[in-house]
């Protein structure tokens, strides 16, 4: 078992009567990418801000890399890199000057910062642009510079707060490849952990461990594959036409718990063990009604299916 | 439902030397929901600005709701709705006051019609709520109401559900589907696959060209011709390197605790054998499903 890098117990943050974070527990080990997944306002950013010691919890304990964040905040922070949602770069400074600035305010000596900065720029693929002003970089490159600045102190814990908001899918893919490399091949022999927040399930599926957040609480926590396992063999994909008619027919079946339209198809959630029975019966019923099936099959459940299952009884 | 609502022929826009939109062609029928995906700078926004009559094409032509974009942009703008999260919602006004303000821009003062629009998006319990207390999901509904108050026949949505969880996203899309069933045509631009999966057809743009426009299912089948595998190996990096050099492997990516592989003409046994030959342990190889993200990455690189 790898060393635990983040341990939070009973973490709470109340703003007047708003329970922004309400009894969150975290246990994250070296080598793990942990996804805090939920809507804006679910408590993701507040949780991160408590982990870096930027705001004090109303209650609870936090330990990061062996330091008590409430008592030894400077020591804890020396182990943390943080890329906030609105990170700022100095647009008039070059790429290298930006990193130098972050390195120096974190107390790195001049002998240390230059070789390390160059190494990090190579890692994020910005070495060719080291003398370009930050203001002249594309959105994706700014993102990578933000990441490089957060990494210059070689943190063991990296906190990324919705790092890919507004970033296109190609850039997002590149960014994720870097994050995964960071934990699978850490710069030093000590392991690294990453906590990343996102409202998107395609990002959640790339984490080792996912905590679904809703109204300040973690409502479920597991690996993406274990989470999906909860609805294994219970999601059917139905394609055909007209979709509206197919939806009505499917809804009449007692074994069908939910029907969701998805572009050119429907997803049906069926009761455990009922998938084959539903497939056989729906095929007959749909033919009898002169509607058309193009395909009807069991598909692997998505994290989206799981999230909806977990939250359907407490809508906003 | 067979009327084309949007027809685009050889539509092109140049800015100096730079061709932002390069001879694109497509049609959208009434009641369709069409999504546009593309990296920043691929020409999505320029296309939308031309369709809204805000920017003249350099070449080609397009009609929206039967009106020519170059000659009749006023008529178009009266009949289309536009929703962006960058829109200002006034935090110290109530829901009803916000919508009354925006309706006034269109010369609509009928209180019943304004309330009807709020009911349509599920805000009937919240007429007198100050919007500063709203969650992102509720704000998105109010933004939709603002885009709908003049009863447009065509609706442009720009990342309509960014920042919300799947439950709120699905509730929002239920509204969109019922609008489409009532004959409203919908164009969505987004960076997020979670949103694109809800569209009936999806277009992918790159460097000003429309590379593909089809249903999500067809895109996955046509663009991702091979098989998708989820390969659990350790060490991850060596696995990545080995598979990258393997014949028949189209693409390998890191996917958290495993590798995602798209292969053509090889089976899981071949993948396992290769890894074993290089002393890399394959714990598990599972068949995966192609996603719109796979499609996008294949087309946009």
Using the coordinates above, name the CATH class of the largest domain in chain B.
Alpha Beta
**Which geometry of chain A do the CA atoms define?**
elongated
Helix content of chain B: 25-40%
- Average per-residue pLDDT of chain B, rounded, comes to 92
**CATH topology heading of the largest domain in chain A:** Rossmann fold
CATH architecture of the largest domain in chain A: 3-Layer(aba) Sandwich
Globally, the shape of chain B reads globular
Q: In DSSP terms, counting alpha (H) and pi (I) runs of 4 or more, how many helices of chain B?
A: 11
Helix-strand sequence of chain A: EEEHEEHEHHHEHEHEEHEHEEHEH
| First and last CA, distance of chain B | 36 Å
The CATH superfamily of the largest domain in chain A is P-loop containing nucleotide triphosphate hydrolases
Your description of this structure?
The complex is a heterodimer of chains A (316) and B (301). The relative contact order of chain A is 0.13. Chain A has 316 residues and is α/β, with parallel strands linked by helices. In chain A, helix 6 (169-184) links the parallel strand 7 (157-161) and strand 8. Chain A contains eleven helices and 14 strands. Chain A has a six-stranded mixed sheet with strand order 6-7-8-3-9-10, sandwiched between helices. In chain A, strands 2-1-4-5 form a four-stranded antiparallel sheet. A four-stranded antiparallel sheet of chain A has the order 12-13-11-14, covered by helices on one side. Chain A has helices spanning 44-51, 73-77, 95-105, 110-124, 139-151, 169-184, 201-204, 224-229, 243-252, 275-288, 303-311, and strands at residues 4-15, 18-29, 33-37, 59-64, 67-68, 80-83, 157-161, 193-198, 209-214, 217-222, 235-241, 256-262, 265-270, 292-298. In chain A, helix 4 crosses helix 5 (139-151). Chain A is elongated. The model of chain A has no long low-confidence stretch (mean pLDDT 91). Chain B is an alpha/beta fold and 301 residues long. Chain B has two domains: 4-214, Rossmann fold; 225-300, Alpha-Beta Plaits, CATH 3.30.70. Helices cover 35% and strands 30% of the residues of chain B. Chain B has eleven helices and 14 strands. Chain B has helices at 44-51, 73-79, 95-105, 111-120, 136-148, 166-181, 193-196, 216-223, 236-244, 268-277, 292-300; strands at residues 4-15, 18-29, 33-37, 59-64, 67-68, 80-84, 154-158, 185-189, 201-206, 209-214, 227-234, 249-254, 259-263, 281-287. In chain B, the strands form three sheets. A six-stranded mixed sheet of chain B has the order 6-7-8-3-9-10, with helices on both faces. In chain B, strands 2-1-4-5 form a four-stranded antiparallel sheet, covered by helices on one side. The longest helix of chain B is centred in the middle third of the chain and has 16 residues, at 166-181. The model of chain B has no long low-confidence stretch (mean pLDDT 92). At the A-B interface, helix 6, strand 12 and helix 11 of A face helix 5, helix 6 and helix 11 of B.
